[in-house]
Design goal:
The complex is a heterodimer of chains A (about 650) and B (about 300). By secondary structure, chain A is mainly alpha-helical. In chain A, about 70% of the residues lie in helices and about 5% in strands. A two-stranded antiparallel sheet of chain A has the order 1-2. Chain A has a two-stranded antiparallel sheet with strand order 4-5. In chain A, strand 1 and strand 2 form a beta hairpin. In chain A, helix 3 runs antiparallel to helix 19, helix 5 runs antiparallel to helix 10 and helix 13 runs antiparallel to helix 15. Chain B has about 300 residues and is mostly helical. Helices cover about 75% and strands about 0% of the residues of chain B. Chain B has eleven helices and one strand. The longest helix of chain B has about 30 residues. Chain B starts with a helix and ends with a helix. The relative contact order of chain B is 0.18. The chains are: A mainly alpha (about 650), B mainly alpha (about 300). The interface between A and B is large, with 86 and 87 residues. Strand 3 of chain A pairs parallel with strand 1 of chain B.
């Protein structure tokens, strides 16, 4: 098995490095596609039959027994990863086309190797049963994504973001090692299957918190999310799509696996923790998203928001299970899982859209864009669908998953279990939904609507059809889940088997899905009918074009349009405590009756982000300075250190402290 | 039955603006315009051609259909007294709220498409107030679910008279009525009689629409108002006698008179006060929820 792994690794590297420059993308696509197709075939089989499939199982001399298997949850994640990585690889062909001349072939080959390895590693992560193989693939995934972020390594901010990412991921990795090592030490096996046994005999909270922090680092949980808004703008867009749409879901996967093993007695506490963290993460993410004025940064914060929504659903499910209410449990977990799937669709689509904007206009700053809908009509339309889906508007997919979560909350309220907590969750989710509409109408309208704010934007052209094809893949997912939710429910219900015993169909969710399907089609039909009526009425009438009505002001210009900053100003004035504002220039003063020329630029930074970096950077620098004293550069000193270490081990074992 | 339900809702939607106008006129000592004048206005609009801004994209032309379509579908979730709604399932409360949100999003995007700073102003305010009003609406719906143990409008109002929490139902109706004011852009949040100066919220968003499009937007606004007023009326009627012949006139009178009286006696809020006003509604909704929770706890104990 290890030999097989090594050989396939070498084969992937060799194939991509050996391929001609222009064909590297296709080789990568074929390799990723083969892996994805094989895994998806297995996943479909697992979802259809509901049986867990054993994928590999062997003993290693150093790391003990290793196995990998695929149950419903893994199968769902495999589907998410397969679709996301194929779309990202396909998109990269067009996106990197103009980089092929500026970067060295080895550089491009390294990028595609990392892309392929990352996709394959993610597939392996969600199929591993835990322990060493899980950690191995997890680390492979981290390193591959680090290399992917580094594609534009000439820019200092990219290097900084990539380094911050690498450091934070390894802090998380250490936590995971600690968690699995503890598990292995107590139960004799470090797989997820051993977790229930551990939780049955040892205190639950410490290990749970270690795992939550380790996985939460990857997922972008509230205080640990600071790498996300830095890494996504730095990475190429298909990488952002892959990381934000797919990779952070492996963190959610880990949290779900650990949560499912919690014994019934401790479920209340865990449920409160997850629910609270979910609400805070969601609100923090969405408010910060509304404050951003960069397309990719805004999308990154919205990923944090969606992770919050997923956790909120999980928390509801755990509380439902804890209070013996299977309807709440199934609604919550089905909502969380479906939102995981949905988010991978619309976030990939939106990041691809951001990539189109960046490659055609060379900027992602909201205040430089505008009116792109005329120049990039297809991108504009696809982005609009993604926007509506992420705002959870019917008849698209985001609505279905949020409806499940809301149903869980409302059922909890109606059946009077955890009423006040559920009311808090309801308020948080409603506020998240409302502010998400604000954030995304701001994003869409400043980028695609109105008049172009710069010349570059006014001359932009539509992207090649390959990239559109890559975007069509997530689009199909959005429409399928939104318009036929009952089939999505079947997949999700099978995936939820790991958490609940009874099938979802028994709790009325399928009737809800059928009704939602009917509502969605009705909505589409009514809108289409109205559009037709409008078209018929206007056909015989005079339809003219004229400038926008300026309320009598005769010299409006494009600079007077509402910018992203002014659009979110109202919310910003409420949410000021959450951000660190940095201003350049001076605003128009109160006493200036006839203002002169002013240049004023304001940025809203994450308060947590600056807090963390300041604290970390200082402590690490001081610590590092102390440790550096040991690095004398003399061999005899190093031998002495080795001796001292052995002596320490000896002394510890004498006193039985190991 | 379902047909009667739709018919009644549309009647309520058509009657409310008339009652508002009449109330306002009477309080000002005027005779007032014809009761159905607003319908004649819409007929007039439907006969007109159109002028579109050169800045706009096809999205701008699609917005009125989406806005009206969403409002019409949202209306289908609303029961009138004992008449069942056309669309009913567990969790239709949420579907109702999000269908309204679809219309709002469409209108915001349409306004931003003109590139006009005035409409941008309106759109940004609408987005903020909509976001802040969402928790209030959800909490009221949550309260109703808590009291009746159901998560669908039809079941909630059918079960309403069996629970003995009339006071909470009445308070919920009060909060819903307040939401009517914000959602349909009435004084004290917004002033429908002008789009100028500092009142730029709802009316200013439709500045560049005319003819058929404007008619669609107007009708959609009435439907939205009717839907929320009917919910308030349903909540009131559930405590007395949940029949359609009581609920439908109640909705018209409740909204028509209260909006008319408020608009005749009060000035519009300063804009900065609007946020406070809407957050107060949310706080009120939370209070009503808590009251409902305590009452229900008391009953469970005794």
């Amino acid at each position: 098995m290890i030999l097989f792994l090594f050989l396939s690794f070498v084969a992937v590297v060799a194939a991509i490095f050996a391929a001609p420059l222009r064909a590297k993308a296709w080789v990568s696509l074929v390799l990723t596609g083969t892996g994805a197709a094989a895994a998806s075939a297995k996943a479909v089989e697992v979802l259809a039959t509901g049986r867990t499939a054993l994928l590999w199982s062997f003993d290693t001399p150093l790391f003990g027994h290793n196995s990998g298997s695929m149950d419903g949850l893994s199968a769902l994640l495999v589907l998410i990863i397969a679709i996301g990585s194929v779309a990202a690889t396909l998109y990269s062909r067009g996106y990197l086309a103009h980089h092929l001349t500026t970067k060295s072939p080895a550089h491009v080959a390294l990028h595609y190797t990392s892309l392929t390895l990352m996709s394959l590693a993610m597939l392996a992560v969600v199929c591993s049963d835990g322990g060493c193989s899980f950690l191995f693939f997890w680390e492979l995934m981290t390193i591959a994504s680090f290399l992917l972020i580094l594609f534009d390594a000439e820019r200092p901010e990219v290097r900084r973001a990539a380094l911050a990412y690498l450091i934070m991921m390894h802090v998380g990795f250490v936590l995971l090692i600690v968690g699995f090592a503890r598990l292995g030490a107590v139960c004799g096996s470090a797989s997820f299957a051993a977790l229930p046994a551990y939780f049955a005999q040892r205190p639950v909270l410490p290990l749970f918190v270690v795992f939550l922090a380790g996985f939460g680092m990857k997922a972008g949980l509230f205080p640990l999310h600071v790498w996300l808004p830095e890494a996504h703008p730095a990475a190429p867009s298909h990488v952002s799509a892959l990381m934000s749409g797919v990779m952070i879901k492996t963190g959610i996967y880990g949290i779900l696996r650990v949560t499912a093993a919690i014994p019934a007695a401790q479920m209340h506490t865990i449920g409160y923790i997850l629910l609270g963290l979910g609400a805070v993460t969601g609100l923090w993410g969405v408010i910060l998203a509304a404050a951003q004025n960069d397309v990719k940064r805004l999308l990154a914060y919205s990923s944090i928001e969606n992770i919050g929504v997923i956790l909120l659903g999980t928390g509801i499910a755990v509380l439902g299970k804890a209070s013996g209410n299977p309807t709440v449990a199934i609604c919550g977990i089905a909502g969380a899982l479906l939102h995981t799937l949905n988010h991978s669709f619309f976030k990939s689509l939106l990041f691809f859209g951001a990539g189109n904007i960046l490659s055609q206009t060379r900027t992602t700053s909201l205040d430089a864009l505008g009116g792109l809908g005329r120049h990039l009509p297809i991108t504009g339309l696809l982005f609009l669908v993604g926007t509506a889906a992420i705002c959870a508007l019917p008849p698209l997919n985001g609505f279905v998953s949020e409806l499940f979560i809301y149903s869980g909350i409302l059922t909890g309220i109606a059946e009077r279990s955890h009423t006040l907590v559920a009311a808090g969750a309801l308020t948080a989710l409603a506020l998240i939904g409302g502010i998400a509409v604000l954030a995304f109408t701001k994003l869409y309208s400043t980028v695609f609507l109105g008049s172009p704010r710069t010349h570059v934007v006014a001359e932009a052209e539509e992207v090649d059809s390959l990239r559109i094809a890559a975007m069509a893949l997530p689009l199909a997912g959005i429409l399928a889940v939104g318009l036929f939710p009952q089939y999505a429910l079947q997949i999700v219900a099978r995936a939820a088997d790991f958490f609940t015993d009874a099938p979802a169909e028994t709790y009325g969710l399928s009737t809800v899905c059928v009704a939602v399907c009917r509502t969605a089609w009705l909505l589409v039909a009514v809108i289409a009918a109205l559009a037709w009526v409008r078209y018929r009425l206007l056909r015989q009438r005079e339809v003219r074009q004229a400038p926008t009505w300026g309320c009598g002001f005769t010299a409006p210009n494009v600079r007077m349009q509402y910018t992203g900053e002014s659009f979110a100003e109202g919310l910003q004035s409420i949410a000021r405590p959450l951000t660190d504002d940095s201003c350049e220039g001076s605003p128009v003063g109160r006493n200036e009756i006839i203002p002169g020329a002013h240049n004023y630029d304001v940025r809203h930074r994450d308060r947590i982000g600056s807090l963390f970096s300041a604290w970390w950077v200082e402590t690490l620098r001081v610590l590092n300075g102390r440790v550096m004293r040991l690095r004398t550069g003399k061999i005899n000193h190093y031998v002495l250190f080795a001796l001292a270490f052995l002596a320490l081990i000896f002394v510890l074992s004498v006193f039985d402290l190991l | 039955m379902k047909l009667l339900d739709i018919l009644l809702i549309l009647l309520v939607a058509a009657a409310i603006p008339g009652v508002i106008n009449r109330t306002r006129a009477r309080l000002a000592g005027r005779k007032g315009i014809r009761f159905l004048q607003h319908l004649y206005d819409v007929r007039l609009l439907l006969r007109k051609g159109a002028v579109y801004s050169t800045t706009t994209s096809p999205l701008f032309r699609a917005v009125p259909s989406v806005y009206l379509g969403a409002a019409l579908v949202a209306v289908l979730f609303i029961p009138v007294g004992d008449l069942p709604p056309v669309l009913a399932f567990d969790g239709d409360l949420i579907a109702f709220a999000y269908t309204l949100a679809l219309g709002r999003t469409a209108l915001i995007l349409g306004a931003m498409d003109t590139g006009s700073p005035f409409e941008g102003m309106g759109a940004s305010r609408e987005a903020l107030y909509g976001a802040l009003a969402e928790p209030a609406l959800m909490l009221v719906l949550g309260t109703l679910a808590l009291l009746t143990g159901c998560t669908s409008f039809a079941e909630i109002f059918a079960a309403g008279n069996e629970t003995c929490h009339s006071i909470v139902f009445l308070l919920s109706a009060f909060v819903l009525l307040k939401l009517v004011f914000t959602e349909s852009g009435r004084v004290p949040v917004d002033d429908p009689r002008t789009h100028l100066e500092l009142t730029m919220i709802h009316e200013v968003m439709c500045l560049d629409y005319c003819g058929v499009d404007m008619a669609f937007i107007k009708v959609a606004g009435w439907c939205k108002t009717a839907a929320l007023s009917l919910l308030a009326a349903d909540a009131v009627a559930a405590t007395i006698c949940p029949r359609w012949w009581l609920t439908a006139p109640l909705a018209v009178v409740l909204t028509g008179c209260s909006v008319g009286i408020v608009e005749s006696t009060q000035a519009r809020n300063k804009l900065v006060r609007n946020t406070t006003f809407i957050l107060t509604i949310a706080a009120l909704a939370a209070l009503v929820f808590f009251t409902g929770y305590l009452l229900q706890l008391n009953i469970a104990l005794s």
